[in-house]
Amino acid sequence: MSREFVEVELDKPRKLRFTMGNLRVLQQRLNGGSLLHIANRIEQIDLEAILQAYWVGLTWEDRKLTVDKVQDILQAKIADGARMGDLIRPLTEAIIEGAGLLRAGADDDGAPEKPQTGA
Q: Which pLDDT tens digit goes with each residue over 16-26?
């Protein structure tokens, strides 16, 4: 079973959460494309994709959040020494979890884990 959210430390502790509904919103805000395409855009440091994804993933908890506020929060985190990879990792993890792209008990490539044999 996947987690409901991924915790991320930004301006304060926040919870990134993606569901089928808000993943559809993300696709619409980024003019379509598959979730894998969006994940690739994020991994390639497409700033619009990163900002939109953070906004979509955080607004379930903070309805007053805007894309501009997300930009300010992420910029402050970078000014405090965070690297872009530090911001991308929890985002992609939350999208993967929310979309069910990894099954419970699966390794990083999505394949079921191989049983361990004792020697």
A: 999 999 999 99
